[in-house]
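Handout, section 4.2: multi-component inputs.
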Amino acid sequence: MSATDEQNLIEVSGLVSHYGDRQVLNNISLDVRENEILVIMGASGSGKSTFLRHLLGLKAPSAGTVKLLGRDITTMTRRELFDLRKQIGVAFQGGALFSSLSLIENIELPLHEHTVLDKDTIQIMARMKLEMMNLLDHEHLMPSELSGGMLKRAGLARAVIMDPRLLFFDEPSSGLDPVTSAELDELIKQLRVALNMTIVIITHEMQSALNIADRVTVLHHGDQIFTGAVDELHASSDARILNMIHRRPSRHGVDSDYIDQLTR
Amino acid sequence: MTETIRSLGRMGIFLGHSVAAMLTPPWRPRSLIKQIHFIGVRSLSVIILSGLFVGMVVALLFQDTLVRFGATSMAGSAVGLSLIWELGPVLTALMVIGRAGSAICAEISIMRTEQQIDALECMAIDPIRHVIVPRFTAAMISIPLLTAIFIVIGIVGGYFISVVLFGLSEGAYFQGMSDTVLMGDLRMCLVKTLVFSLLIIWISTAKGFYLHLVTGAYGSEGVSRVTTMAVVHSSIAVLCADYLVSAIML
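Output:
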């Protein structure tokens, strides 16, 4: 393994993805360095979520490779992929907590599955993570009793319970009020420092992205139109990126003929 | 056509994976007990009520027929054989499909839409072992027991009609039954109920698990579609298997 490889915890090369005959990702290539926060941005339908599924090994690409922690996950067996995933944490958009388990049982689940620690130790570890997420007072609540922001933080607590090297977070800000969203952004930055993690975030929230990212990748209709530092993003002259930064509607965003028909 | 073959292959792999995981440790006794409670205990009232009325109606219909041939003493045999051969296993299976199979399919498909199954995969936890196997094992234990309860309650219902209402002697009712019901009949009943249990739980869980691969199935509409498919397909599968097992074992 070369020195460069060692610094890159994620390497994606020439990734192409299809749903049936429809191509949703076109030749995506990027690297994520150790201890970096990379934000993957794009409008709805740009292919962000599909890209995340490829990074997690939940979907096989039509072409290209995805390397996590130096290993190509596209050629791995299911067992090898499971072993690798023990070093990865994923926080899903809605938390993806199990409705039949209480908050603390959800957080404890990976430890029960993958360690031989006794019940008390597991509980202490889960409580530490809940405290970090400011959820300790709610440990016995069921997921149905938690607010949207609490669900996201709970999902994050479960994602980091195994102290993973790599953390993926899908849409941390969506559906949250600006204050809660800003709190979550701060929490993510603290996690990077406290747990020395490399973090990949999928979002369409520009403010949140600019606040936490070291580097940004922008997807547009399945094409990778930008990858670089936040300063470079601001300096970009690409109209699609400027529209996104300044929240300008796309020229083709609204079908004026259709609106005419509706109002006629 | 290609999609049908692919879907059948997927179902076959799903069954193989589930059965293999069911037979190998680690087992999850807590989840298993919870599922036995859901599939078995919570179906009891439906099974007792329907078993009672089915036994009563069978005795009533046979009473009317046997009177014409002067063979009312055969009522016990007729009720026993009807319930053991056919009505017990088939009606229990159809009741369980309606009460538990549909709910299991809906629950698993919602887990799929809410990314809970993806979350398990990402936590390196096998979703088949964690979600499907407790339901498989619970169904294989609960449905045969529910069938046995259905048959016993049906016999009680038949007793009420034949003995209490039409005055057949208690001895004739039970003697006729014990003379005609053979070990082979019970064996066929057991085979049928085991086959039905497997078909119900296989189809109900797989339909929910593969919701994301059904073309056009999305969100609540998708859950509704796969749940309907699970009920229809498992009912048809039970009726087809009923004929096949009867034809082979009779």
